[in-house]
Amino acid sequence: MDMIKMNVFTRICLFCLCAFFQAQAQQAAWTYTDGGLHFEWNITDDHAKLSEKPGGAVTWQGGLLPSFWIKDGKGQFRYLKARVRGTLPPLSGKVTTVPLELGNAGTGTLLLERAPWGIRISRLEISWRGKVPQIVEMYIGATTIPANAVNVKPVWDRPFLPGWQSMGYCVPGAKAGTVQSYFRMWDFGQPDIALGNFGPSMSTPYGAAFPRPVLFAAMGNGHAWISIGAGSVPDGAMTLQIRGSRGCFQYLCREDLWGAPPSQSRTWNDLLRITIDTSAIGAFHKYYASFPVDPDKKVAPVSSVWNTWGMWRLKKYPIRPIADFMENMSNEMMVLDDPWETSQGSGQPNLQKFPDFFADVDYIRRKNTEIGIWETVGWIKDTAAAGLGVHDLIVDTAGKPCLANWNFDPSGDAYYCLDVSSPRTRAFLQERTRKVMRTLKPRLIKLDFGYGMPNPNMGAPRDPKYRGERSSWEMVRLIAEAAKSIDPEVIILYYGISPLWAPLVDMVSLDDQGDLWYDTRQGHAEWSMWASLLSQQNVAISGSSSYEWRTDDEVLMNTIILGSPGAVLPTELENGDPVPDRFLNRRLAVNKWYRRTILWKPAWLNSHTGSMEAPPRLRCWGRLEHFAGKDVLTALTLREDDHKQLADIQWSGNWGLVAQDDRAVTASARLAVIPFSEGKLNIPCARKPSKVTKLNMQGTTSADNWSWSQGRLTITVTAAQLDNTAGFLVESEIVER
């Protein structure tokens, strides 16, 4: 009998113990659900996963607790992985504080939030014990892996490995020439993909400016994607590290070289924002939506921009012929690019190269054209003329000033790098900008080379609070602040698409399509798609161009949707002949009729935004603007491809439609119609147009190649007519009900 009682007692204890551990495991699982997607994070084990539904196939998994590669007080390098300390609090609320420990080195807390758009690690605090260690690198997603679990060890000199596992990765424009954004897990090899401002200095595939900085990446497959991105500008150089097909974020700090903050505690506010969606771009859109637009931000009206780089890159420097050329195409602004200065970063015009510089600026303005000025963010050539010394520059471990250039060719022409933590450097950046604003009164300042600074292995600002991605961010902020103190409506133009830069800049340029190498159509399409992420951030988007006129139509068909036309084209052909009207006409039409509004949303229509099955492909797509409580399709690009009918429109060939009012393209009282090839367009048109005019480089005439019948308008353009046609303006009388 006693034995029977003992067995029953044992079974009850085992049952209770199992129930206890099961309850503990359930308590440690922090969950977030969005539609049919389920995110679950066992914080105690630091194992998170994303599945299409609870219990469904896992498309991403890995850890999210931070870890550190440090140099401790004894001069030894160590790996510290944050673990849960003690007992977790209840995980069912909106906000959870997770207690952490880092071995015997310190303790901390992590503040975790559920938000309508996703998941937020809003605060990470670390309190060190004893002597403050120096952080060499901080990681999100790294983990120790038992030696017997690693069959093939990748090239990696750390006692831990990246831990994120997914079939696919998406990093906008990770590779530029030719462009690629989606990768299978084994496509990368063993790279460090710069997500911020350190592109060519971080051993990453070359990408000059656009779209960096992005500061986020997506992982997933099929219909489940997770986007993980910065919630604030990181104090380290941020990269996606891939080793053996597994990934993690690394924040390169190198405090062992440059010193650590002396405080016993460290705080990272808004460390990460995590969103999930059925597509990578959908997850990115939710990430962007987590950064609300500042209602007080004032953005001046945008302009069509012609940049002198198209000729100056060929070392053909006369300004007035460029001004005459762009006037004929109704460009509204001429940007004087590098090398207008005596030396890069001086802010002084080179009167040897441009002896009539100030008279030329007046000449441009007499054409009722504004000017813009190129300005470097962090590079300078002549430090003595700027009144700067070694203590105002980023130096290496030997105290020698670092040099940088666009492709990091060690024997190429190079420039000194400004240390924004120097009071004299900060004063120089602002006074240079104010002087340019006072003397030249530019309507726009184009900022360049914020992405070309030395990485922290080479050199870093002396003040830790300006290190990593914060260095270029702070320089852009200082320049923008100085410029707007003179003219609050000056446009600050930059390249990167990170929403963290949106409060600083007014316009983002897709940069020169020369970086896309020989695939302008696909490259500009992908860049346009990623630029559309900014469409709700109160930032204008400039479509830019390639260096070749023969690829310009593809650029302009996307520019119709993006908004502001931009160009770095030459004003003559390669052999010196004049540019034919068949090229100029389309530029003229887009310059005349582009949408000047800033807030919009993309309508993808029959386009594909990319997946693990196929890269992005823009076919027909549109621009949605919000008027009177509803989304209105105000611009539309129609490519022939394999679809002949869309939204009750029939067509052959390639076309662009741009409403000149706040109505949809199928109901506009003033509709611009731009043909990009021979073909026929048939669209709804409730009333017979009162007037249809044709625009070309010679002026405006009445059009005769259109007809109207039973509520539909037809326009036909032959190959012969195309060469002499910029576009048509269809004007109708609107009867208000």
Structure, explained:
With 737 residues, the chain is an alpha+beta fold. It has a domain of 140 residues. It contains 12 helices and 46 strands. The strands form 8 sheets. A 9-stranded antiparallel beta sheet has the order 7-8-9-10-22-19-18-15-16, with helices on one face. Strand 24, helix 6 and strand 25 form a beta-alpha-beta unit. Helix 9 packs parallel to helix 10. It is globular. About 3% of the residues have low confidence.
List the helices and strands and how they pair.
Layout: H1 2-27, E1 29-34, E2 37-42, E3 47-51, E4 58-62, E5 66-71, E6 77-81, E7 83-84, E8 95-102, E9 106-115, E10 118-128, E11 134-140, E12 142-143, E13 161-162, E14 165-166, E15 168-175, E16 180-184, E17 192-194, E18 216-221, E19 224-230, E20 237-243, E21 246-252, H2 255-258, E22 265-277, H3 280-289, E23 305-307, H4 309-312, H5 320-328, E24 333-336, H6 357-366, E25 370-376, E26 379-380, E27 403-404, E28 415-417, H7 423-440, E29 444-448, H8 470-486, E30 491-494, E31 507-509, H9 520-531, E32 540-542, H10 552-562, E33 566-567, H11 581-593, E34 601-603, E35 621-627, E36 630-638, E37 645-646, E38 649-652, E39 655-659, E40 670-675, E41 679-684, E42 691-696, E43 699-702, E44 706-709, E45 712-717, H12 719-722, E46 727-731
Parallel strand pairs: 23-24, 23-33, 24-25, 25-29, 29-30, 30-31, 31-32
Antiparallel strand pairs: 1-2, 2-3, 3-4, 4-14, 5-6, 5-11, 7-8, 8-9, 9-10, 10-22, 11-21, 12-13, 15-16, 15-18, 17-20, 18-19, 19-22, 20-21, 26-28, 27-28, 34-35, 35-36, 36-39, 37-38, 38-41, 39-40, 40-46, 41-45, 42-43, 42-46, 44-45
Helix pairs in contact: 7-8, 9-10, 10-11
GO molecular function: alpha-galactosidase activity
Protein name: Alpha-galactosidase
Signal peptide: 1-25
